[in-house]
Amino acid sequence: MYDWRKMTPQERAETLRLRKQLIRPWHSPPHWDSGESRYYIVSAACYEHKHIAGAVFSRLAMLEKSVLEICESCSEKTIAWSILPNHYHVLVKTEHITELRYSLGRMHGRLSRQWNLEDNCLGRKVWHNCVERIIRSERHYWATVNYIHHNAVKHGFAQRWEQWVFCSAVQFLNEVGREKAKEIWKAYPVLDYGKEWDK
């Protein structure tokens, strides 16, 4: 739905008609809950990708702590994460994706209120949605790990993975070692992963 603002009124009307017919959310991807333990990449972005979460360093630390606490309580395992000034990604294994999304949504509301009070911007929309994607294969899994760890580099916040502190890259490098991480990077390239939705 990133193309919404580029659509003509007729294209918007047709898109909404189709989404209503399919009983899908009007302005976001559908949510999935198989009820089984699955791997998911979960992403959320600040409204219009404004750097509200990263306006001050302490907010990034607070957001990372909050996201990881929720993932720990709603997931079997948190594999990778990256928290940036305007969005975040986390790779989890869970059978409770609906509960995880709900908890993240409540956290978004709580942090929105707090940050809006701090910035004297009551009523400002801070977050736009939280979406999950089921990991479909081993290739998708490892490309997602690479994508998440490379996210701060992709968006220009760091030159190397381990320079961004609000990320699991250092932990990953310590667990698998640099040589294995390089092998994984080459075997499962990011390519244009996220091109249409992570701007």
TrEMBL record:
SMART domains reported in the protein's UniProt record: Y1_Tnp
Residue span, Transposase IS200-like domain: 35-151
GO BP terms, alphabetized: DNA transposition
Alphabetical list of Gene3D superfamilies matching this protein: Transposase IS200-like
GO molecular function annotation: sequence-specific DNA binding; transposase activity
Stored InterPro entries: RAYT_transposase, Transposase_17, Transposase_17_sf
Name listed for the protein in its UniProt record: Transposase
Provenance organism: Limihaloglobus sulfuriphilus
